[in-house]
Amino acid sequence: MASRCLKICLGVSLLFLIIVAVVIATLILTVFKPKNPNITVHPVGLEHFDFSILSNLTANISIGMTITIENPNYGSFEYTNNTGYVKFHDNVVAQIPIGAELVPARSQINEATYANLMVPKLINDPNFFPDLLLGTLNFTSTASLPGKALLLNIIKLKTIIYSTCHISLNILSKIYFPKSSNSQKPETMASRGFKICLAVCLLFLIIVTIVIVTLFLTIFKPKNPNITVHPLGLEQLDFSLLPNLTINVSLGMLITIENPNYGSFEYTNSTSYVNFHDTVVAEVPIGAELVPARSQINVTTSADFMVAKLINDPNFWSDVLLGTLNFTSTTALSGKARMLKIIKLKATAYSSCDISKIV
């Protein structure tokens, strides 16, 4: 029985570990799957713009920028120092320094920076003067930030951000028109992640419930304790025919109570009965006890026989002449089986034992 319970326990434990592994893998591949943070570049305006065609052609342009970095992950994102680039058509005409930062989980930060245009490269572009005459300069900013996503403050996963943003500058009014390529809405992503999290939690609760029910229907299922009665011998036997018929019999008994459950068994004061054929001829008091889990205890007691009922039984004298008295003891112990020191379940132990006594 112990071997069977051990196999069941190992099987349930293995199943539980597999389920936990599946749940963790599902969470990592859905809710905690690393997502690329979103970058949006907001030109603040022209900080400095000088343009002259007299004497020597000079142009100094400095554009102030605010970079918004949004982290949609359930872990923080930390990136190192990096550089963004501004392109005029297909030529890189400016570099944007981006300082190292830590973006907390599911939040965003704003970083102020600037872009100093490489004026010679800009004015040498064949599209520069036509755009200048039209009053609008069109740029494209690109950025990539490699870093690490930190999950549960333990797991570090490499990730990288990519962003492309189209910027139009109106030279006459210094108005900027940014058009970010990051069109995914944070509210939609948060809603999707919340639904996935709820689904995974519900699945986990169902699995845990199934495991607990399986355990209670197999390993922790309450079993009736086993009771065995061992007669120790006649403690007292008085028999006399003169002047009056008197018989006093006291029989010592040792009661062994075995608890096969994985929880303790506590029973109240009870009484066992000794039958002579079909007549109750003795009562055996059994005191309340606590039987620990998967162990047994011995209780010593005695049975005082109801002599009048015994000798009035039609089978008594015939059994005395044969030299053997045959008895049957019956016991029922009502109590509670306690699981994990919290759950209490009602249980009753039954026993029937045949006793033969040579007179």
Automatic annotation (TrEMBL):
The keyword Transmembrane applies. Its main location: membrane. InterPro entries: NDR1-like. GO terms for cellular component: membrane. It is found in: Membrane. One of its GO terms (biological process) is defense response to other organism. Keywords: Membrane, Transmembrane, Transmembrane helix. Coiled coil: none annotated. The chain crosses the membrane at residues 12-32, 197-220. This is Late embryogenesis abundant protein LEA-2 subgroup domain-containing protein.
